[in-house]
Amino acid sequence: MRKLLVTASLIASLGVAGAANVAGAHTYHHGYSSYHQHCRYERDRNTRIGAVSGTVGGGIIGNVLTHGRPGGTLLGAGFGALTGATLARNTVHC
């Protein structure tokens, strides 16, 4: 049961991070400045979505692995946030 919960939470957190890229379909603006502003917006948006989804997924995984101890939950959430933000940030190619 624990393995199933860990696997399901990992898949859910990766799915939300992947959805950030799909939901980020954007229109192209004419002009150098507006393109880079939009690119920066998309990168920052994906980073925020990845951080939030990583926090939730990491917290769940940390909680399961440490049998509900708060330290494991907080560490898992912290590492999940960093990992999610980094992975999501690198999905935007400008």
What can you see in these coordinates?
With 94 residues, the protein is mainly alpha-helical. The protein has one domain. It is 80% helix and 0% strand. It contains three helices and no strands. Helix 1 (2-22) packs antiparallel against helix 2 and helix 2 runs antiparallel to helix 3. It is elongated and about 50 Å long. The termini are far apart. 28% of the residues are buried.
Task: Please write out the topology.
Blueprint: H1 2-22, H2 32-65, H3 70-89
Helix pairs in contact: 1-2, 2-3
User: What is the count of structural domains?
Assistant: 1
Number of helices: 3
- Average pLDDT, all residues: 80
Q: How would a textbook summarize the main sheet? A: none
Structural class: mainly alpha
Care to give the gist of this entry?
With 94 residues, the chain is mainly α.
Structural descriptors:
single chain, 94 residues, mainly alpha
